[in-house]
Amino acid sequence: MTDHVVTVHPSTAALPREAQLAWKLAEVALHTRNVEPAVADMAANRLIDDAAVAIASLHRKPVVAARAQALAHPRPGGATLFGHAPDVTVHAEWAAWANAVAVRELDYHDTFLAADYAHPGDAIPPLLAVAQQMGCDGAALQRGIVAAYEVHVALVKAICLHCHKIDHMAHLCPATTAGIAAMLDLDVATTYQAINQAVHVAFSTRQSRKGEISSWKAYVPGHSALLAVTAVDRAMRGEAAPTPIYEGEDSVIAWLLDGPDARYVVSLPEADEPRRAMLETYTKAHSAEYQAQAFIDLAFDVRQRLPGGPDAIDVDAIDDIVVTTSHHTHTVIGTGANDPQKFDPKATRETLDHSLMYIMAVALQDGRWHHVDSYTPERAARPDTVALWRKIRTEEDPAWTARYRAADPNERAFGGAMTVHLKNGETIHAERAVADAHPNGAAPWVRSDYLNKFRTLASGIVEPGEQDRFLHLAERLDTLTASEVQVLTVRDASLEAEGVPAAGDAPRQGIFG
């Protein structure tokens, strides 16, 4: 690995493009070759994981709306949509939009946490869409996925966005762009321009994850996908973009991040080094914000020790529950966010899956977590749940903050401790550093876990034979032919009634139809 120092330069300095971060990221992406077996295996796992959570969300309102927008842009020889048969194809950028929304809707796929936050798997839908429209084979698609993860993880380790209230799409979009370029085997100069554009247009605020959280949280990766696809297309046509996008005196670092005196160190692999960043990322066993994963597992254990537990916890016997955790967890999904909506039984699902207090209350009472049942309005409004929910608060612990930010992946932790104070004066204390499914957890996930997640979420939605067909393709990703990549989707027969709008059809609900 080589440390690339990123600072702000005045325009008069004429910083050579070869010295700019965007150029370095382009080189990292385009030199992605000879994918190691463990990384290849994980790329297939993440493709399966994305498809699983997309299937489970196909009939949810935000996903239906995004898919309707995509269906209004049919294109023979384009890209497929999750849920539809492979012969239903739309323009790649709209397939990327709709499929990315489906993947993100349930907050149930992979994550990486360091200086900033990330869901690296959000890059897979646009990569798959472009691969299908451009006739790429499985090896090219795999290369693009690995390159996108490599760039994404490097940026997330080095540059904090959330501390400036910038949404993490600002790292996702250039990573996706770099992955598409690697998949298409573009040259460095073209990729550099595409990354410049992607960074320039991808900055938005974190209001999308604050207070009453709306469905836009699910749409963010779709928006990023649209921006990435069009950035690459424009660069392929020979058009340039704002530069230096990171180092310029009026660019993103100078005005939106650490300012003109900023100094970031981005560690990047050399051309001949293996791309292993994907192995540092992790998926979710539970449909909730990643920083809640370890606490859900912890709650399952603690409920066994509570009065009345595990069958019927005596909420009245509990005085309060104090959770000590990292700064990030406390201020994003804990009471440190100062969001009253996180205690509102009528809050949106998106808000509830970012409320550690709600999540712990339900996990303590139910001893299970379900992507639908745990979030229903009836479940959130249960009086005993509301009472327990409002007894839970979070506090920052510098030790957990240090572990959250640890450079060593073996030391990095995203959990914390909980202390239950009972009214009789007794206390119950327990802690968990990482979720059970984490690579360093009690039960690290392997291929069989991903397959089981897919089968579980697809049950009752996708026919068993269709499940088998998709999994047979996904498990041999790197050997797929271009024609096999074009049918790398999952069909839900119930969606056939949606149809594909014919040219000239009158709009039904929106501008597109």
**How many structural domains are formed by the residues?**
2
What is the CATH superfamily classification of the largest domain? Answer: 2-methylcitrate dehydratase PrpD
The largest beta-sheet arranges its strands as: 8-7-9-10
Mean pLDDT: 95
Uncertain residue segments:
501-507
Question: Would you tell me the structural class of the helices and strands?
Answer: alpha+beta
β-strand percent reads 5-15%
Number of strands: 10
The residue fraction in helices comes out at 40-55%
Shape: globular
Alpha-carbon distance between the two ends = 49 Å
- Quickly give the CATH architecture of the largest domain: Orthogonal Bundle
Instruction: Write down the Rg.
Output: 23 Å
CATH class of the largest domain: Mainly Alpha
CATH topology-level fold name of the largest domain: 2-methylcitrate dehydratase PrpD
Q: Sheet with the most strands?
A: 4 strands, mixed
Number of helices: 20
Spell out the helices and strands N to C.
EHHHEEHEEHHHHHHEHEHHHHHEHEEHHH
